[in-house]
Amino acid sequence: TQLLEQSPQFLSIQEGENLTVYCNSSSVFSSLQWYRQEPGEGPVLLVTVVTGGEVKKLKRLTFQFGDARKDSSLHITAAQPGDTGLYLCAGDNYGQNFVFGPGTRLSVLP
Amino acid sequence: NAGVTQTPKFRILKIGQSMTLQCAQDMNHNYMYWYRQDPGMGLKLIYYSVGAGITDKGEVPNGYNVSRSTTEDFPLRLELAAPSQTSVYFCASRGTGTYEQYFGPGTRLTVT
Questions:
Q1: Which of the two ends of chain B, N or C, has the fewest CB atoms closer than 10 A to its terminal CB?
Q2: What is the C-alpha to C-alpha distance for residues A50 and A5, in angstroms, rounded to an integer?
Q3: Is the pLDDT at A1 greater than 70, yes or no?
């Protein structure tokens, strides 16, 4: 069974601080996705990383895929209250289905 | 395009009752998925389909059934509802050769 772990589980920071959240697995995935979910809504895709070692930037968010394609990180620079939400990583099981991690719940206080 | 739609938005069932959660997409996506999300947790895959007429079990299929008679629709059937099935259910779809899953707004189900 493929599993994804995320850390930390909860994170509460002040506006303007930087943070990094992690997604780890013992399994190799063909790609890995990061989603953000707001209360009462479905997850919304932020980014997909495909190549080992790949780094993608989305404004203040930087995503990295591990060289072995087993782990990933999400770094947020100068966090804002609008970044508050549940961040989920999901591993792509070679195009068939996806495995989701338990999520990191981020709260950015003004 | 409406994207992925789910009905109902909320439902309360008594133990032992049955119901069908509806999911439809208008993007002509071949891949469709059903997930459940328990409070404060990530999503667990219940069933998925790679095209009309083809379905397969995910991580937590027990107590559920699906069918995929058309590309657009992917209903999830709960037989003999149990309190352990209290959760928020999300349907998602994805186009062939793409990575992004598009999620519906969810159905919040309570079994008492």
A1: N
A2: 19
A3: no
- The one-letter code for the residue type at B17 is Q
- Dist CA B30 CA A66 (whole Å): 30
| Residue range B48-105, pLDDT digits in tens | 999 999 999 998 999 999 999 999 999 999 989 999 999 999 999 999 888 889 999 9
Whether residue A43 has a cis bond before it, omega within 30° of 0: no
Tokens of A51: 């190549």
A33 in reach of chain B (CB within 8 A)? yes
Q: Give dist(CA A36, CA A59) in Å, integer.
A: 15
Give the whole-angstrom CA distance, residue A30 versus residue A38.
27
For residue A46, count other CB atoms closer than 10 A to its CB. 17
Do the Cβ atoms of A42 and B103 come within 8 Å?
yes
The length of chain B in residues reads 112
Residue type, A74: L
Q: How far is B13 from chain A (nearest CA, A)?
A: 20
Chain B positions touching A99 (Cβ under 8 A) are 45, 59
Residues from chain A that touch B101, judged by Cβ atoms under 8 A, are 33, 43, 45, 90, 98
> With 70 as the cut, is the pLDDT of residue A69 above it?
yes
